[in-house]
Amino acid sequence: MAEQWTQRDRALWLTCEMALAGARGRPVRPPTPVPSPVRPQLADAETLLAAGPFTRYVLRAGDGSYRRSSGFFFATGAVGLAATAAVAAGQLVGNARRKRAAERDAAPRWEAAGTGLLTVSTHGFYLSAPGGLAAWPYAAVGACEVGRPGLVDLSGQSTTGPVRWLLESDWAELLFAMWALAAHPGHPPLASGAWLPPGWVERAVSLRAGDDGVARGLPGIP
Fold it and tell me: In Å, what is the CA distance from 213 to each residue of 13, 25, 121, 176?
């Protein structure tokens, strides 16, 4: 069966088109109106570029506590002394096992912390969720990386203090590219093209059969 052009491929291709336009100083516009309920509010000349579902992850530490067994058992006689030793050994093994489990639980881990609609614009991004709308200008993001295809790892300053999130979305790469072009144009992965999934450009060009105007500018911007 021949490979199919997917919605994810379309999102990445449009991401490349808009990122290249921004890198070359041209107006950045989506090909069609963006289906988002968000009203542009970060700048007068702001343009909404794309919108789609997101999942947010936050880094949390587990409990890390454990209950040490210290029950006292003692019996006399040869059989009783052997039983006492066996119980003591079992307690040591059980305590060690519970301690290891507690240490694993205490290790920080990423946990899902909500879903909603991500809207990316020329001046920032918006997270629409049941709890409300959060508007993020790119200047409020201090660091951003593509952690894996479809996911960005970002740190920023929110209205309640510093945060670090993972955002998973078909438009994660667009968020990264727009942020980097606006706030950190020397970002190494942006310049090298490493922010795109490995091998995706070649696959996309083969599927689009000659429509390589965008691909000629990749990898690397510009």
Answer: 11, 17, 23, 22
Domain stop point among 107, 138, 171: 107
- Kindly state whether residue 26 falls inside one of the protein's structural domains: yes
- Of 191, 193, 187, the C-alpha closest to 218 is 193
Domain range for 144 is 7-61+113-217
Give CA–CA dist 172/188, Å, rounded. Answer: 17
CATH number where 160 lies: 2.30.29.30
User: Residue 174, class by beta-carbon neighbours within 10 Å (0-12 exposed, 13-18 middle, 19+ buried)?
Assistant: buried
- Count of Cβ atoms closer than 10 Å to residue 111 Cβ: 12
Please report the pLDDT score of residue 29 as a whole number: 96
Looking at this protein, which amino acid is placed at residue 112?
A: A
Would you say residue 2 lies in a domain?
no
Count of structural domains, the chain: 2
What mean pLDDT, rounded, does the chain reach? 84
Report DSSP state, residue 128.
E
The C-alpha atoms of residue 5 and residue 205 are separated, in whole angstroms, by 11
Domain presence at residue 94:
yes
Question: How many Cα atoms are found within 13 Å in the side-chain-facing hemisphere of 183?
Answer: 20
Indicate the pLDDT class of residue 57, thresholds 50, 70 and 90. very high
